[in-house]
Amino acid sequence: MQVCDENATIVHLTASSTTGCQPVRFLWSQFTGWQPVIHDNAMLKRERQKKILNLIRAKRIGTQEMLRAHLERSGVPVTQSSVSRDLEELGVIKHHGAYALPQVNGGSALGLLSLDVAGHVLVIARCLPGRASAVAVEIDDAGVPEIVGTLAGEDTIFIAVRDQKSQRGVIKKIWELVG
Question: What is the mean pLDDT of residues 15-23?
Fold first, then answer.
């Protein structure tokens, strides 16, 4: 059992490995009582990696154990080996004794990695995990007249353009904007 911030407790229950059951987590809160926390592993990993990036931006963290403890306190149960794999996948580096966000080689300072056309009126932007919203805000703020709108996920942005002729021009303008 682990105690978390804000008077909440997370309990992990695991069925026998021979049954093939997945671990079940329950969250205790003074406001809601015991609540099962249903999850799928892919969603947990994305959320955990997003939380890791946010923690590294917000705090000086020098060890995987410190990072694991911060994640646990914020309600994200994790093992040291998962933290290690996440840091490697995210490309997080150590700089002056603390974890730092990766520098993008061949991409933009905001984390834009690639732009490509899709269909007749879409441009797809791929970004570093957790960076799509920031890139989308920059694109929206630029007021490019050929862009109808953007829709950002965690690492992908759908950019709707007025017509097929606008796609290549929009790609060029976006690279000039955030490149």
Answer: 45
